[in-house]
Amino acid sequence: MKPLARLRLGINIDHVATVRNARGGALPDPLRAALLAEAAGADGITAHLREDRRHIRDADIEALMAGISVPLNFECAATDEMQAIALRHKPHAICLVPEKREERTTEGGLDVAGDATRLAGFIAPLRDAGCRVSMFIGHEAGQIEASAKIGAAVVELHTGRYCDLIAGGETGAACAELEALRLGAIRAHALGLEVHMGHGLDFETASDVAVFPEVAELNIGHFLIGEAVFRGLGPAIEEMRRRIDAARATAKA
Ligand code: PXP
Question: What distance in Å separates the CA atoms of residue 112 and residue 96, rounded to the nearest whole number?
Answer without folding.
Answer: 10
